[in-house]
């Protein structure tokens, strides 16, 4: 955990990012010990006639944080939304290829999409608590799914989720006050607590800290690192420092000449930031495009 190094690329450019913490820890782990959560095979995705993603092939490891980085418009959010079929909501969109979750095709006609989204939760860029109390924000999902029926069980679950989201101490005396009265950073941690309340296996995060101040951002990153042994986390971020600090693996998207998003490189975050294999990765992380 204490490993700390600054990357120098083959060109001699110094990457202005310190690769520490979990990225350094992941660099030590052997790829053979990893279990795959998602297998993405020959995935293409279109919004009508526009091809937004082309020929994606990647395995996302279980119980690790995978960061998705890349220039604006390269398809990062589109890809993230495919992982729990939020993409179904866009009329006129279609895909070819497969995404397997624990070996099961998520696009199978037999698959229950509500059950999929329970397994694969999502936290959005802008905190979006329900206009209800803090307690009700957490209790809503479990109640919908019919779990934790007794009040004592629900109380315990609410406390557990808020503790996991590192929010309990700040809100334990105001559980029945409106969630909208919380700060932006607290609201985002509440949204993470809400996502956890239905016991997902995966949490997708779309720039979860981009609307937050630096202290709240660090709290969200610490929280992700805390949660990663239990959940598979996939996060889209524009923040290179954040990807380097708070992810184990990094996936780099770029845009082809026709503007379709492609994965140019995927690997351990430590390797991507210190020894990128592709010129476009190097250009992107050193700020020369995107
Ligand atoms: N609902 C939609 N209908 C049509 N085109 C869309 C839709 N959503 C996204 N696109 C297009 O798909 C491409 C990829 O968009 P996407 O939002 O996935 O990129 P991104 O890498 O997440 O971008 P950013 O970093 O700016 O958030 C872009 O060209 C975008 O204009």
Q: How many helical stretches?
A: 11
Radius of gyration: 19 Å
Q: How would a textbook summarize the main sheet?
A: 6 strands, mixed
The CATH homologous superfamily is called: P-loop containing nucleotide triphosphate hydrolases
What is the terminal separation in angstroms? 31 Å
Hetero groups in this structure are: adenosine-5'-triphosphate
Helical fraction: 25-40%
Number of separate strands = 12
Provide mean pLDDT, rounded. Answer: 89
What would the principal axes of the Cα set say about the shape? globular
Strand content: 25-35%
Low-pLDDT residue intervals, each spanning 5 or more residues: 1-18
Q: Report the CATH architecture.
A: 3-Layer(aba) Sandwich
Q: Which structural class matches the secondary elements?
A: alpha/beta
What does this structure look like?
44% of the residues are buried. This protein has one domain (5-285): 3-Layer(aba) Sandwich (Rossmann fold), CATH 3.40.50.300. Mean pLDDT is 89; it is low at 1-18. The protein is built from eleven helices and twelve strands. It has a six-stranded mixed sheet with strand order 8-9-10-5-11-12, sandwiched between helices. It is an alpha/beta fold and 290 residues long. It has helices at residues 21-28, 76-82, 113-119, 134-144, 151-164, 168-171, 184-196, 214-227, 240-246, 269-274, 279-285, and strands spanning 5-8, 14-19, 36-47, 50-61, 65-69, 93-101, 104-105, 120-123, 202-206, 232-236, 249-255, 261-268. It is globular. A hairpin with a 5-residue loop joins β1 (5-8) and β2 (14-19). The structure holds adenosine-5'-triphosphate. Adenosine-5'-triphosphate (ATP) is lined by residues 47, 50, 52, 70, 72-78, 90, 259, 261. Residues 47, 50, 52, 70, 72-78, 90, 259, 261 line the site of adenosine-5'-triphosphate (ATP).
